[in-house]
Protein 1
Amino acid sequence: MQYIIEKVTKSEKKEILPIYISSIGEEGCTWDEEYPNMKTIEDDINSEGLYCLKINNSIVGIATLIKEKNIYDEFKEFKNACLLTRVGIDKKYQGKGYAKILLKSILENAIKQKIDLIYLLVNKNNIKAKKLYNFFNFEFCRIVNEHGREWELLIKQLFYKGE
């Protein structure tokens, strides 16, 4: 099947929310009817960090890569760390390898942008997501308590000192 991965545009924002909604209720998914929402989507588009995977010109997968200040002390040495968040594949397309395709492309793009570290928070009960991140060699860093939940903080170092 032919696919394309690109940044989501403002004109496509209404196609994103149904993908988030399709994952609500799945084991380990922490999303609900209030989050993520249209404001979240608009903020991600405005930050130019919302990527999509399209099949036959329809968006079937999304992920956000946010360049932000390092909020965790252990990442202070990294100059260009990014948060990977809100990775989702439409329920109809799950289990077909599309999350791997999307994440591989995002990682390749991050390397081109000289991002030196990607970190993310994953629900410890989200087995599918943890398998995906493990496939790409994300490493467990520590447990984090945020947003009223306990999360696993995972990291992937893309560049090492001297590179």
Note: The longest strand covers residues 58-67.
Protein 2
Amino acid sequence: MAYWEAVGRTDEWYTPKYIFDALGCDFDLDVASPCVRRHVPARCWLTRHDDGLKYAPFWHGMVWMNPPFGGRNGLIPWLNAFVRHGNGIALFPDRTSAPWFQTYAPCMDALLFVSPKVQFERPDGTVGASPGTGTVLAALGTVAVRALYRASDAGIGWIPGRKISHIVEMEGA
């Protein structure tokens, strides 16, 4: 568990605007919206007070899902609901060795490993430090996959299986 996921700390971290700009799409529903809406181009929102998981059978259209990261295996019910819905983009930690990641990643139509690490925004608008783990965007559905490809083309990450046309020199190499 990374420092920003410590038990008892807030799950109120907001996805920066540049992610949505790179995706270049709108969403019908944000299923885990913070109480203060910021940046997510969605038509409807479910907050923690609404309990987005409770309403999962009624999710509609293309969803945005940045669920609470806290708690061991806390993402599993959210990922179950996302896969069942089958249309949208989910954001979660790229813990590739975690059993839940190995279970759900193959269910996705596309994955984009965001680079550099996303520095999420706090409720007061300040930017957090670089998190202890990276972030992945997962797509289900054609529109969502196209959005991930747009984001990759905009330079915010890499999609496995997609060749890149340039090599970046790493410092110290």
Note: Residues 1-8 have pLDDT under 50 and may be disordered.
Protein 3
Amino acid sequence: MSTSIARIEEFFKEEGLKYTLSEDYLRTSFITDNYRDQDGERSLFLVIKLEEDGEYFKLIAPHLYHYPEGPYAEAVFRALLVVSWKTKLLQFEFDEVDGEIRGIVEFPLEDSQLTRRQLMRCVNGIVRIVDEYHPVLERAIESGIVDFERAERAAKIEREADDIYGYIGKNEINGPGVPERVLAFED
């Protein structure tokens, strides 16, 4: 029993998320608050792929950053590793040929079906983690300084605001009475 791209597409439809379907992968993107792509857009592009006949799941954020060579490599890789350590979910990959840094969530499904809840945890997680830690990673790339304190304070304030909105029955993104969803989809 493996998972298919068609099953993942069903989950996206059920969640009301927009996507583009290719033969062997699904593409989507989300608006971000902090993260900016290489064109300066507040957008996180994601690719969902299945490998090994649907028994291995990959959620990839390609081209998150570009760091081919430079004086701050130690700081950049330290920051990437600390984010991976702190978050459990997100890992980073580095292509030493062209300097691409990508984010990835991957795991074996083997004989299990991917559930909608698992998928949405991965999608929500990667978007939120990349957005939350972008200032740290950007600063490491630009100046070689690794400082998590500011980003973690900002994230704490944002979580407290989300709790308050939840308590009063409103969601700042979706409005009153609408269940919280992934960050806004980019049109």
Note: The mean pLDDT is 88.
